[in-house]
Design brief:
Maltoporin, Chain A, 5-stranded mixed β-sheet
């Protein structure tokens, strides 16, 4: 199989280079690759060519010292001020390397995660908005599916990511359609440690859960390259209490299998130029288990995706130019004997060019153009659906006082020869003394209808208007210990008014149709507390997050059903919180995680609801005392209190279960 061939060739080449040199290693790999049955596969060829490209660039002895202005800094780093942001570094992600993005955010963020179960669909809600209102960007490119507008967080393995950053609140002026409630930025970052390094991780757990991932990195002079491979399979056949609460049943039709790879190259062409390439492939096959109200299910779904991107950056005097392009291809096959099977293929082409200007007195300007072409070929459509988008954007950052910055951003998009609403934002941050920092932001945001909204047979509505909204927030950060800053408290109040909210609802004949149905007002308060203490050999790090979110329907259009007016949106908890306590001493580590969701309504009139959720996880780690190599053991006990809970109605989550893994770092 393809994945085993890739693992074989990468590991063999790595061992040969370490012991016999690059030239002999390449000869051996080329001779054996030509005999491989996978030689015609595009992914196989891409990875092999990447391995040999690193050799060519590594042969030069010229090294460069980069200027003070970093070439890899992005719009998010330079112009996203005045709002809550949360960064998960490579170290944080390493604790959850065998988990998905869904697991990470469930236990560590203010995002609400709506999961259908282990290995099943998982989508976010940021600040009381819908799943399609959270933009997900991979190295600057939006991953939202053009057909349904969402990203399945259960399909994003953390082993392929170096850093994840959450942006709370509207960001359409900087990142375009979709960023109404927030954005998730997934990043691949080069590891510039000289020479070869490798990480191998293997684990197993309850419900026949088996996971393996490997990462190989090479850096020398002007080049950094890395390759990550992963495989995950599970039966997910846990026992749950039936609907009548009379007996336990083993979940059926719930197998999950996923494999993929990520390959990244970073070339320092000269002192002022940088070129990077990124490739991400994965395939997922999962059986869809029955809900508590179903007797059995034979539904299954296969997801396959190819994502590749290229970026060139150039720095000259006080200017920086970035040009990037990307191509995404996704395929979804759904099968069931109950409903019609379907297939969907989407392709997306991106091109973006932007110019940064570094002016006197720390003024910063960013001007750019963004173009995208979307293509959808689905079995439910009579013919392919396309969309063309062209956008112009600008951001200006001004230091108005010694410790205060002001930022303006504006964006205009042309979609299929029609102008979308102009989006804009104004934000500011100011340091007060040495212990306080306040921030504020006002933004106008929007989200365009999906292909399903516009063209679904017998239901699509071509007259739908884009969703639009105004977002405001005001925050204050406090550092009690102004010298060490080992304690940080944050408090943010926010408001987000979204108009022309698109909702699928049944008409008088019982046919589900999409309409600009309502106006929603989401508002609330976010509290954050981060601490770090060091005492002798002990390090104690804690994070505490609490979110109060009131998200209600303010107006209802074209409907006689007014029962949902002023009611809380379904699956948006009024209260949610999570806490992490991380204790380490020499080779030992202990992490306790707890998350809480208050009751969540499951009906629009708020007459039905799910009970509150209170779930804890415990992670134990041990670093073996080897000198040249690192071997680390992880034992995680999930749902330690054996809570019975559901994140989606009639979709049970597992009780107490475990995962054990070993990580070997060369």
């Amino acid at each position: 199989m393809l994945r085993y061939s890739l693992i074989y060739f990468v590991l063999v080449r790595y061992l040969l280079v370490k012991n016999f040199g690059t030239q002999l290693a390449d000869r051996f790999v080329i001779l054996h690759a030509l005999r491989s049955s996978d030689i015609g596969h595009p992914t196989f060829l891409f990875v092999l060519l990447s391995l040999f490209t690193t050799t060519v660039f590594a042969q030069t002895d010229t090294s460069y010292i980069l200027p003070n202005i970093e070439l890899h800094a992005s719009r998010l780093n330079r112009f996203s001020i005045g709002q809550n942001k949360q960064v998960f570094s490579d170290t944080t992600i390493a604790y959850s390397a065998n988990n998905s993005l869904s697991d990470l955010l469930l236990h560590n963020s203010g995002f609400t995660i709506k999961s259908y179960g282990l290995g099943s669909l998982s989508t976010p809600s940021a600040r009381g908005t819908a799943a399609g209102h959270t933009a997900v960007l991979w190295n600057g490119f939006n991953l939202q599916n053009s057909m349904n507008g969402v990203v399945d967080f259960s399909l994003i393995p953390l082993s392929l990511i170096n850093e994840a950053e959450l942006q709370y609140g509207g960001g359409s002026a900087l990142f375009g359609s979709g960023a109404i409630g927030g954005a998730v930025h997934l990043k691949n970052i080069p590891n510039n440690v000289n020479g070869f390094s490798a990480k191998l991780n293997a684990g197993f757990g309850s419900f026949s859960d088996f996971q393996q991932n490997a990462k190989i990195n090479f850096h020398q002079k002007r080049i950094t390259t890395d390759l990550s491979l992963f495989h995950h399979s599970a039966k997910n056949d846990f026992k749950y209490l039936n609907l009548q609460r009379t007996k336990y049943i083993k979940q059926s039709n719930s197998d999950f299998a996923q494999f993929g790879l990520s390959q990244n190259n970073y070339f320092q062409l000269d002192a002022k130029q940088k070129l990077s390439t990124h490739f991400w492939y994965q395939n997922t096959t999962r059986l869809i288990p029955p809900s508590l109200t179903e007797g059995q299910s034979d539904a299954q779904q296969e997801d396959e995706s190819y994502r590749m991107s290229l970026e060139w950056a150039h720095l000259s005097n006080n200017k920086q130019t970035k040009i990037r392009a990307a191509y995404f291809k996704e395929y979804i096959l759904f099968f069931s004997s109950v409903v019609d099977s379907s297939t969907a293929r989407t392709q997306t082409y991106f091109f973006e060019a932007e110019q940064f200007f570094y002016l006197k007195n720390k003024h910063r300007i960013n001007i750019g153009v963004h173009a995208a072409h979307f293509l959808a070929d689905a079995s439910v459509f009579e013919k392919d659906k396309t969309r063309n988008k062209l956008a112009l954007f600008m951001a200006y950052k001004i230091p108005i006082l010694q410790k205060q910055n002001l930022n303006f951003s504006i964006r205009q998009e042309l979609i299929d020869k029609k102008f979308s609403p102009i989006t804009a934002s104004i934000a500011t941050e100011r340091a007060l003394l040495s212990q306080w920092n306040w921030k504020a932001k006002l933004s106008k945001n929007y989200n365009v209808p999906t292909f399903n909204d516009l063209y679904w047979p017998g239901a699509g509505n071509k007259n739908l208007m884009p969703e639009s909204g105004w977002s405001q927030e005001l925050g204050l950060d406090f550092y009690p210990n102004k010298k060490q800053k080992n304690i940080k408290l944050g408090l943010t109040a926010f408001s987000n008014l979204v108009d022309n909210w698109i909702l699928w609802a049944p008409n008088s004949l019982g046919i589900w149709l999409p309409e600009n149905k309502r106006k929603v007002w989401a508002r609330g308060v976010e509290f954050r507390l981060n601490t770090f203490w060091k005492w002798r050999n002990y390090n104690i790090k804690t994070t505490w997050n609490y979110d109060f979110t009131k998200s209600t329907i303010q107006e209802i259009y074209n409907s006689q059903n007014k029962e949902s007016h002023s009611k809380q949106l379904i699956y948006v908890p009024l209260h949610k919180a999570n806490a992490n306590i991380d204790l380490s001493c020499k080779q030992f580590g202990l992490v306790y995680q707890q998350f809480f969701y208050g009751h969540r309504f499951t009906s629009t009139d708020n007459t039905k609801k799910l009970p509150a959720v209170f779930v804890g996880d415990l992670l134990l780690t041990y670093q073996f005392p080897f000198q040249k190599q690192k071997l680390k053991a992880h034992f995680q006990l999930k749902n330690i209190w054996n809570s019975r809970y559901e994140l989606i109605a009639f979709r049970p989550m597992p009780g107490r279960h475990f995962v054990f893994s070993l990580m070997w770092q060369l």
